[in-house]
Amino acid sequence: MSAGHSAIAIAILGAFVACASGAHDDATAIATPSRAPPALPAAILPNGDGDFAPSLLRVTRAGGAARGGATLADVETCGDCHGDIEAQWRASAHAFASFNNPIYRTSVDRLRKDRGNKASRFCAGCHDIALLVDGAMDAEIEPKDRRAHAGVSCRVCHGVVATRPDGNGSYTLDVGDFPVPKEGDAESVRKHKARAAASPLRTASLCAGCHKAFLHEGTGNDHFMIGQDDATPWSRSAYAGSLGERVDAPIAQKECRTCHMPPEDANDPTAKGGKVFSHRFAGAHTWLAQMRGDRDQRRRVEEQLASAVTLDVAAVVPEGAARVLPPEDAVLTAGARAIVEIVVRNVGAGHRFPGGVLDAQDTWLEVIIEDARGQRIAEAGTRHEATGDDPTAHRFTAAVAGSDGKPLLARETHLFEAGVYDHTIAPRDADVARFAFDVPRSAGGPLRAVARLRHRSRRLALQKAACDDARSARGRAFGAEGLRRVARAIDPCPPEPVTDLARAEALLGVGARAGTGGGERVVRGDTRAFQRAFDHGLAMLHEVGERQGEARPSLERALTYARSDRERAMATGALARLAQEQGRTAEALELLTKADALVPAHPALARLRGETEAISWRWSDAAPHFKEAAVGAPKDDAVWARLAVIWGGAGRERDALEAAQRGLLLQPRDADMLRIQALSLRTLGAAADITGHADDAFLAHRAPDVAPRVRSRCTQDVPGCALERLPVHVHEMRR
Q1: Dihedral, 625, 626, 632, 633 alpha carbons, nearest 10
Q2: Which three-class secondary structure state does DSSP give residue 487?
Q3: Contact call for residues 429 and 259 (beta carbons, < 8 A)
Q4: What is the pLDDT of residues 161-194, one digit of tens each?
Q5: Going along 391-498, which residue ranges are E strands?
Q6: Reduced to 3 states, what is the DSSP secondary structure of residue 731?
Q7: Three-state SS at 614
Q8: How far apart (Å, rounded) are the C-alpha atoms in residues 730 and 735?
Q9: Cβ neighbours of residue 343 under 8 Å, at least 6 residues apart?
Q10: pLDDT in tens, 555-609
């Protein structure tokens, strides 16, 4: 939900409280109707603590006699029959998820030292299951403990029998026996397969239980905060079948396994056509692959990363002139200032790009401007590889600060107070980075702008912390044990690999089109021209309100280049969104009518129509459109939250409650939906204990009061923070 929408929600909720109180008081004066109203549902509350709190792991032993962590750590027994799969797994981050990974060990040991061993159960529910189920996380972890090197093993994923949408290890693990198949005994094979392939195994919910996290008092933090979350962006995206965000090019639905477990050759009893779902789980961890000396795994990870994004030198803004798109048409004035705009679009990652722990990722743009002789006249981001802190670099990362407003760069999660900015890119969304330079007085011909998108797994501050830990006595002991187990030292101290994910260039200035590599004249119906203009306009929609209108020329240009009804609907829908967000209601509705004629009954258009009605406080008119959008985007919790707020503003408490509870089944800790639920139950006359629990749930998950102060301190006291807090900003290039 945008900041504007949040403000509207607050206003609605304030009115809702007043109206609800009055309605309830009036009801006491009316005779009891002959037909009793439908019974109220119970409040849907976030799952509470269990035996392994603050992890939400639950354990059962439906499979028979209970087995402990030593059994969970046993991969070799599985490998006796599934050798190729075991080999794939041993290359993965899952195999190095525990204390055998120096990056993780640095973070979890720090948490244990500062907040106590019990708090580290939060980590263990997803990283150290073999230790956690035995209660070992409450004591010192010894380097020679086999369980500390187990990672996420075969018996963990294949032992999950139920999942919940909370995160923080929100799954139920069957620690009972695995029936061992016997050769020639079909029934034993059937039982083994049934035990090893419980229904969650083939769903995104299995992955979401750990690739989604939150912080709170139990994790050593002062208040509730959303943590790592790859599951929610996916569930809100077209990859999950949720089409409420925008009209886009048709894409196939995909879930976690589609991208991270592609078919791979294997000689295995479970293979079909000689292939199994890969257990390498390739994602973005080039550094871990390098530490292990695994060139094949690193190659696969780099290919996965490169397929996620597109890069384009999209536009130029000459000093005192309008934006020129495409940049090959620009005419630059010698001695004047110009801004080149680079667009990165997330076209392949089903979650944010980059994903995972957003505050630790290190992905940036490196931009160079050369004159006609090939001499460099301006640069940005070129020192980031060496320093990790080049102020001219545009970084695709998020920053979370402590109480002093300073971003924490080495995964000190227990010190997190508030997020201060986030420049990662949602699925199918785009980001624009702007770079300013001075045009030389004697360029000698067209200028060349070259952009590279570069990535390394972790910030240098985190690498230094991991290196220091690895050189300690404890770190050396773990390293020696790891060497004994995997026949290779896992050393975090050598330089991290830096991967070039994409490269783009364009010629700028007089004679640009005549130069080698210059653009070709754009004609109507040019697919690349449409995509460049649309992506640029999509990215510019993130501008602050007073500059958001700068997206309009690009989107209008995209509309002229469109060659299909779908492309015309994409551009028209984006223009409608711009008009709606700028408060031009009549124009927005007219554009939505045009778009709807091109792609009828599209959920994104219904959502936009609802927003357009809501901005004029027409809640009853807005609600049916949001309901249509919610039905068309059933996994998108944000649409359900918005519908709940709108129904509340319209005074339809039962409908508001229904929508909120539908959304809470997807996102149990959403503050807006928890508040709507609490208000609705109170208005509808629920029992005091029910409303009390609902109120407590909202209060525990509301936005922290300290967040504005933390962000303000970052803006005022931290160099560069004020600039980074602008969603679209200009980087001054070095000469």
Answers
A1: 160
A2: coil
A3: no
A4: 999 999 999 999 999 998 889 888 999 999 999 9
A5: 394-395, 398-401, 418-422, 430-438, 447-456
A6: strand
A7: helix
A8: 16
A9: 311, 312, 314, 430, 431, 432, 433, 532, 535, 536, 539
A10: 999 999 999 999 999 999 999 999 999 999 999 999 999 999 999 999 999 999 9
Tokens representing 502 are 């994409």
Q: Which of 733, 676, 62, 653 is nearest to 377 (CA)?
A: 733
Rounded average pLDDT over 597-622: 96
Residue 583 and residue 577: Cα distance in Å, rounded?
10
List all residues 6 or more positions away from 35 whose beta carbon is below 8 Å from its beta carbon: none
Can you give 62-94 as a three-state secondary structure string? CCCCCCCHHHHCCCHHHHCCCHHHHHHHHCCCH
Structure tokens at 234: 């996916």
CA atoms within a 13 Å half-sphere pointing along the CA-CB vector of 659: 31
The rounded distance, in Å, linking the Cα atoms of 706 and 710 is 6
- What are the DSSP calls for 128-194, one per residue? -HHHHTTTGGGSPPPTT-GGGG--S-HHHHTTEEEE-TT-SS-EEEE-S--PPP-TT-HHHHHHHHH
Q: What pLDDT is recorded for position 665?
A: 97
SS3 of 412, please?
coil
Instruction: 603-606: list long-range contacts, CB under 8 Å, 24+ apart.
Output: 603/242, 603/243, 603/244, 603/628, 603/629, 603/631, 603/632, 603/633, 603/639, 604/243, 604/244, 604/245, 604/246, 604/247, 604/573, 604/629, 605/247, 605/573, 605/576, 606/244, 606/632
> Which amino acid, residue 320?
G
- pLDDT tens-place string over residues 369-396: 999 889 999 999 999 999 999 999 999 9
**193 Cα distance to chain centroid:** 33
Find tokens 């209060």 and name the residue: 699
Instruction: Using CB atoms within 10 Å of the CB of residue 704, give its burial: 0 to 12 exposed, 13 to 18 middle, 19+ buried.
Output: middle
State yes or no: pLDDT of 523 exceeds 80: no
The chain-wide mean pLDDT, for the chain, equals 91
Other CB atoms within 10 A of residue 209 CB:
27
User: What gap in Å lies between CA 132 and CA 68, rounded to an integer?
Assistant: 10
Q: Is 677 helix (H, G, I), strand (E, B) or coil?
A: helix
Residue 495 is classified by DSSP as: P
> For residue 35, what pLDDT is reported?
60
Residue 395 to residue 378: CA distance in whole angstroms = 18
368 near 379, Cβ under 8 Å?
yes
Long-range contacts (CB closer than 8 Å, 24 or more residues apart) made by 246-252: 246/428, 246/538, 246/570, 246/573, 246/574, 246/577, 246/604, 247/566, 247/569, 247/570, 247/573, 247/574, 247/595, 247/599, 247/602, 247/604, 247/605, 248/428, 248/570, 249/566, 249/567, 249/570, 250/566, 251/428
Q: State how far the Cα of 316 lies from the Cα of 473, in Å rounded to an integer.
A: 55
How far apart CA 407 and CA 459 sit, in angstroms, is 12
Question: Is 725:715 a contact under the CB 8 Å cutoff?
Answer: yes
Cβ atoms < 10 Å from Cβ of 42: 12
How many Å separate Cα 172 from the centre of its chain? 24
The CA distances from residue 219 to 148, 215, 500, 527, in Å, are 20, 6, 36, 50
Q: Can you give the pTM of this predicted structure?
A: 0.92
- Return d(Cα 632, Cα 643) in angstroms, integer: 13
How far apart are alpha carbons 112 and 400 in whole angstroms?
A: 20
> How far is Cα 649 from Cα 617, in angstroms, rounded to an integer?
8
Orientation angle between helical segments 671-683 and 3-27, nearest 10 degrees: 10
Per-domain residue ranges for the chain? 58-210+251-281, 299-458+496-521+713-732
Q: How far apart are alpha carbons 411 and 110 in whole angstroms?
A: 10
Distance CA 451, CA 444 (A): 21
Superfamily for 299-458+496-521+713-732? Answer: Immunoglobulins (2.60.40.10)
275 φ, ψ to 5°?
-130, 150
